[in-house]
Amino acid sequence: MLQVCYSPQYYAQTHTNSMEKLTAVAEALKPLGIAQFHVPEHLPIEIFKQLHAPEYVDAFHTGTPEKMATFQGFKPWNTQLRDAVYQINAGQLLAAELAWKHQVSANIAQGFHHAVYEFGSSFCTFNGLALIAEQFPNKRIFVLDCDQHGGNGTAEFTKRYDNLFNYSIYGLAFGCPTYERAETSHIHKHNGNFSQYILAIHDAFKRAMEWNADLIVYQAGMDCHQDDPCGSSWFSTELIEKRDEMIFRLAKKNNIPLMFVLAGGYQALPELVELHVSTFKTAYTTYYTKP
C-alpha cells in the first residue's frame, strides 16, 4: 500500500480551498484501499526558526504583527490555519522518512514553495520542501516542481542549503530564478505542448541522477490543468496522468526514493479532488501492481 501522511488537523478554512481540499482528498482515498495513513507528530516551533527568520515565525505563531503573520495571503490570522501549517510540515518530514523506507510515499499537503526565508508569500507560509533539506542535512533533496507557478521560494533556499536542488517546470514564471542548483523549464501555457514537457521531465531526472539525489520530492501540481484558472490550454486530464506516470516510472526505474505532495489547483473542488486522487492511483499502479 502507499504510505501516506495525513491528519484531520491539516484542514483549515480559507478563501482558496487550498487547505479544504486536503481533507477532501484524504476522504476520497480511504475507500479505495490503496493507502496506509500515518499521522505526523507535532514539531516544536524551534524547528521552524531554524528554517525561517525567527521574527517571522514568532509573528505567524502569535498573529502579531498582523501584517507579517498574514503576509502569505490568508486573512484574518487564526489558530486553525496556524496549527494546520505546523502539522502539514511535520508530515513533510515523516513522508520523507517513509519514502526512504518504502521507495515511495506522499503527504496530502502542499509544498509551500513560494515561502522564502524572511516571510511567506502567495498562500505559502513555511517552505516544507526546504524544511526537508534543513532537517536531513546528510541527504541530497531534489525537488521536481510541476506546479504551474515556478518555485521561487525553494530556489532561494538552494542558496542556503547545499543539499537542496530545485527544478521547476512551469507555465507561469512567478519570478522563479535560476541558480547553481535551481533550474527552470518554462512551457508556455498556450503555445507549449506535452512533447516539451516530456523533455523537461527527462532533463530533470538527468540532473537528479548526475547530482546523486537521495530523494525526489515531486510537487504534483494541478493548477496547470486546462480547466484551472491558471492552467495551460493544452494540458488535459489524460496528459496530467501521463505526466504522473512518467515521473513515477522514472523514479522507480532509477531506484530513487520519491515522495509527492499535491501543490496548486484552483478549480471547483469536486473536479480538483478527482485530479489529485488520480495521482495516488497512478503511484499505486506504478509501484504496487504487476506489469
Structure description:
This protein is an alpha/beta fold and 291 residues long. The chain has a single domain, classed as Arginase, Chain A, CATH 3.40.800.20. It has ten helices and eight strands. The protein has helices spanning 20-29, 45-51, 54-62, 66-69, 79-102, 128-135, 152-157, 194-210, 237-253, 269-288; strands at residues 2-5, 35-38, 104-107, 141-145, 164-170, 182-186, 215-219, 258-261. The protein has an eight-stranded parallel beta sheet, sandwiched between helices. It is globular and about 50 Å long. The mean pLDDT is 95.
Provide the helix percentage: 40-55%
Number of strands: 8
CATH superfamily: Histone deacetylase domain
Beta content comes to 5-15%
Q: Quaternary state, please?
A: single chain
CATH domain class name: Alpha Beta
Order of helices and strands: EHEHHHHEHEHEEHEHEH
Shape: globular
Trace the largest sheet across and list its strands.
2-1-3-8-7-4-5-6
Structural class: alpha/beta
The total number of structural domains is: 1
Estimate the mean pLDDT confidence: 95
